Give the backbone structure.
Amino acid sequence: MSDILQVTGLKRSFQQGGVTIHVLRGVDLIVGRGEIVALLGPSGSGKSTLLQAVGLLEGGFEGSIRIGGEEAAQLGSDGRTRIRRDALGFVYQFHHLLPDFNAAENVILPQLIHGAETADARERAESLLTSLGLGERLSHRPSKLSGGEQQRVAVARALANRPSLVLADEPTGNLDEATADVVFMEFVKLVRDEGSAALVATHNERIAAKMDRVVRLHDGVLE
Ligand code: ADP
Ligand code: MG
């Protein structure tokens, strides 16, 4: 089977105060279907920049990004939106849940936008949330949930549409260490059970070691 992600020669630089900062200097990366890869690197090394490029969130880079075999880097905004919707799931450091909707609704809504039937979307949301230990919290709004619970809802939401590739940017970075460890391991297990691939930025070596493979961002390239 083809790889889900093939990044070749990815370059990204920023202008800051008249100076050009070369953040990504030619990143090559392959993620296989169902493979969970940790992206390690110190703060400022370009992890978020790489995930944003792969997530087709912004342009401004050079190089090739193939997702599911399709060259995505040069697509217009419609094509990028289609790939984001059909193939990708996202978990951010801060959950960005919709505050006026409860936990189940936060996981149901992206499925309805994707074209699912309401009953199916609800069943899937409840199943994902239950597998993350939130079966008794389905009707809670985000403000009534702990930080770890909120991030679990964000994980369920990211997986709701069965993405082939989940992109996670320090998904437990705002939680205390003990909670972060638990939520992180639940996240990895769920991604594995679902058969998705994932590219997960972290600076936690211990957590990274639990994934299938570790790649390190250093001086703008992967070691
Ligand atoms: P990490 O996620 O590994 O902490 P980032 O990808 O956020 O690193 O940032 C890498 C470098 O790129 C940093 O030096 C940061 O200041 C710079 N950078 C990121 N985004 C921008 C931007 N939009 N404009 C200017 N510089 C940026
Ligand atoms: Mg970052």
In short: The pocket of adenosine-5'-diphosphate (ligand 1) is lined by residues 14, 16, 21, 23, 41, 43-49 (CB under 6 Å). Residues 34-59+88-217 form a domain with the Rossmann fold fold (CATH 3.40.50.300). The chain has seven helices and ten strands.
